[in-house]
Amino acid sequence: MSRKIDILSLSHDALNEYVSSTHPTFRANQVYRWLWKQGVRSFDEMTNVPESLRDRLKEECAFNSLELAQSQTASDGTIKLLFALRTGQHIETVLIPDLKPDGTASRLTVCVSSQVGCAMDCAFCATGQMGFRQNLTSGEIVDQVLIINKLALERYDSRVTNIVYMGMGEPLLNYDAVLDSIEKLTSPEGMELAARRITVSTVGLAGRIRQLADDETRFNLAVSLHSPFDEKRSSIMPVNRKAKTDLKSLMQAIQYYTSSTKKAITYEYCMFEGFNDSIADARELARLVKRAPSKVNLIMYNPVEGLGFQRSSEKCLNDFISCLVRERVTVTVRRSRGQDIDAACGQLAVKNTTD
Ligand code: SF4
Predict the structure, then answer these.
(1) Residue 101: CB partners within 8 Å, gap ≥ 6?
(2) Side-chain half-sphere of 293: how many Cα atoms within 13 Å?
(3) What are the tens digits of pLDDT across the range 271-295?
(4) Which of 108, 112, 240, 303 is the most exposed place for a label (fewest CB within 10 A)?
(5) pTM, two decimal places
(6) What is the spatial distance between Cα 254 and Cα 264, in angstroms, rounded to a whole number?
(7) 67-341: CATH number
(8) Which CATH class is domain 5-62?
(9) Does 128 sit in the ligand 1 pocket, CB within 6 Å?
């Protein structure tokens, strides 16, 4: 790998510091805009940057961009892209279009990856089976959005509207790069997306949730719950076996987060047949989530071969919803998309690489 500085991984502050050792700081802002607003990936295209700075950048910096390796489109219009990293590892990113009857897009959501593989080892998840391989840089995270944005403009004549950090990896275990990527996506000098259109989904790392509150983040936070009972949750999510991240610690952190940020939280709850879809589960879930402003997003599970979980029936789902509604819990249902190309929730696992 190149020994040059990866300019795409530099935060705005780091770029300022680097550029200002030889040029005025406003030149760093110009470079930042070329990188994250215009999306250029060559220094020669930075036409308002003086030649002396461009020469220095060429000499000392490189673009560790993603390389598109494969693209697949599902019958429902969901597009899954496979990207190669400089290290030879691969990640997957998904574009989920919500289309109006006339074929134009009402919403274009990108599901980005934040790590290669994942260390959290959730029993129902294909990515978890890969184990952890490496963190992505902020540049590699934003590049997923920039590349998909170009695709969205070509296919739907519309920009990406929403971003969810629900692809491969646990975003809060790559905290600095994830927050820097969101800065690049939301900054007036970057893509200028509204923070309320970005959702970071976590397995529930209590300490990091408190840190998000202390850092006064403005994006949405979703927490994967999947069971309101410690024993059951621990059996499918190893993170719950530790005292610092069990349900009690998690709920305390969430209460801290919602009261500090004045933002509600979303609980993700994957419905597994015969495991967490009974009325007793629904009642306990309601009791738990009512402790802080929140809504529950029920996810219809996409079975992953060999993992032994099945999706709940429609009747179970409806009874579960009725129980939550009776308990005055706000509830939505997500029917995953792109199942025929393994692009749905929990199915990303880079099948076609040999590494
Ligand atoms: S569900 Fe999320 S946190 Fe759990 S193993 Fe999969 S990618 Fe990691």
Answers:
(1) none
(2) 11
(3) 999 999 999 999 999 999 999 999 9
(4) 303
(5) 0.94
(6) 9
(7) 3.20.20.70
(8) mainly alpha
(9) yes
